[in-house]
Amino acid sequence: MPKRILQGTVVSDKNDKTVVVKVERRFTHPMMKKVVRMSKKYKAHDENNTHKVGDQVSIQESAPISKDKRWVVVSSGQA
After folding, report:
1. Are strands 35-45 and 18-28 parallel, antiparallel or unpaired?
2. Where do Basic and acidic residues bias regions lie (predicted)?
3. What domains are defined for the chain?
4. Do 53 and 6 meet the contact criterion of CB atoms below 8 Å apart?
5. 8 A C-beta contact, residue 8 and residue 59
6. What is the mean pLDDT of residues 29-44?
7. Is residue 57 helix, strand or coil?
8. What pLDDT is attached to residue 53?
9. Residue among 43, 3, 37, 52 nearest 22 (CA)
10. Is 69 helix (H, G, I), strand (E, B) or coil?
């Protein structure tokens, strides 16, 4: 089964080897027919602490790394 890849923005890089990535999704509400924006934050592993707040990154699903980390940063920039 392929691993999911999501794009988002780094909102925190204070933890060692970890970044918090905010992923936003947009969809049309089934009843109101209005575009709704929802976001979720994921903790992702950043081995070399290379990414800073505001960076656009892609994250990929992985096996659990710690209690909250299940994602790994795979690339930066608009992918």
Report:
1. antiparallel
2. 44-54
3. 1-17+46-79 (2.40.50.140)
4. no
5. yes
6. 97
7. strand
8. 97
9. 43
10. coil
